[in-house]
Amino acid sequence: MKFKTILTSAVLATAIIGTSAQADITLRHALLGTVLDMSFAKKGGNTPAFKEFMKEGRNPYNTDEKAIKDGESLYMTGCSGCHGHEAEGKIGPGLADDYWTYPAIATDKGLFEVLFGGANGMMGPQYVNFNTDEMLKIMAWIRSIYTGKPKKAKWLKK
Ligand code: HEC
After folding, report:
1. d(CA 90, CA 84)
2. 2-156 under CATH 1.25.40.10, yes or no
3. Closest C-alpha to ligand 1, atom 37
């Protein structure tokens, strides 16, 4: 009896996770407010971590040491040229402090939206270079070097 219940819930959970992969949250362009076209996403990024992110807009890699390390090297390849090796800012703004042109960046959803869809000028859509899983890793590294006020770190809040 009990086993059957567990089995049923497991099947149900799989079904729910399976179908919710597309969207529980709606991702929008940081400037235009239009819904982001995820069909531009590079292959290989639809990992369990990304599926989890799409449920509530929280990055599961924020507490994952290995992912943070991977994110650091991805950042060095694709972002440091414009944002600086310590995300101190160069052509693009600094990313480690708590001043954001786009205040929504204080949430993981907002940060992802700027990465995937891009913003003004030189900040092009990053789907050209990275898949969505890699973006989450880069985001986790950016969070890990945060120097701003803890109060402003909305991504840590429930
Ligand atoms: C070719 C240069 C360039 C590259 C490469 C680049 N950026 Fe940017 N980035 C910019 C510029 C310029 C801006 C300012 C755009 C704006 O204000 O709309 C910006 C803005 C941002 C913002 C918004 C900051 C804020 O204060 O709101 C984030 C976050 C960001 N970039 C992250 C990244 C990450 C992560 C990568 C690598 C995956 C990356 N960028 C790659 C130039 C670049």
Report:
1. 6
2. no
3. 79
